[in-house]
Amino acid sequence: MRRIAVLIGLAVVFSSALIAQGAREVQQASQTQQATMHRVLATSKTSTMQKEMQQAGDAGFRLAAVMGGETAAGGKETVVVMQKPAASASKFEYRLLATNKTSTMQKEMQAASDADFQYVGQTVFETAFGGKEVVCIFERDPSVPSPPKYVYLLLATTKTSTMEKELKQVGDAGYVVVGMTVAETMVGGKEVVAITRKPAR
Q: What is the model's pTM?
């Protein structure tokens, strides 16, 4: 009887330990799921978005998603979602490049890359004058001393068949597509705009 009682006691202790461990794992999983903070930014002005994204970046938030469109409350806006792990102490810097001239965008993208900024997204802003701007978002992590350098090339055309030919040409030269939008530019009208890049030598 004594042996049975001991075995029963050990079984109870072992079961209690398993239950406690399971509870800790559930609690840890719950904490992990709740450990990401978010900010949603919405505006129709690129200058305002630049300021708000930088404020969020200074607080440790990083770009998660961006989309231009029409919201129920604000009308035609661009919405940006930024997020950060609750325990993160990192900070990020942002540059929004906005233009309706593809040649200008090409120069600004390369200048941002030369300043250690990386392409992270693009969308289309509708301006107060009724036009549309292609907006590219570049990010820099100050904690990374020597980020990889890239050479950027912007392709814009009104014909998808032409875009395929141009992508083949730049692909043969080592470029890869990192983003694409369809926008109405000042020079070309409604164009397919593709952002490509390759590692700088």
A: 0.76
Total structural domains within the chain: 1
Is 27 part of a structural domain of the chain? no
pLDDT along the chain (201 residues), means of 10: 49 51 57 76 87 95 86 74 86 89 86 94 70 85 90 90 94 95 63 91 83
**Closest residue by Cα to residue 197 from 90, 88, 118:** 118
Residue 159 belongs to domain spanning: 35-199
CB under 8 Å to 152, separation ≥6 — which residues?
106, 109, 110, 113, 119, 195, 196, 197
Q: Report the chain's C-alpha Rg in angstroms.
A: 25
3-state secondary structure of 63: strand
The alpha carbon of residue 104 and the mean position of all alpha carbons in its chain are separated, in whole angstroms, by 22
H or E segment to which residue 152 belongs: strand 150-157
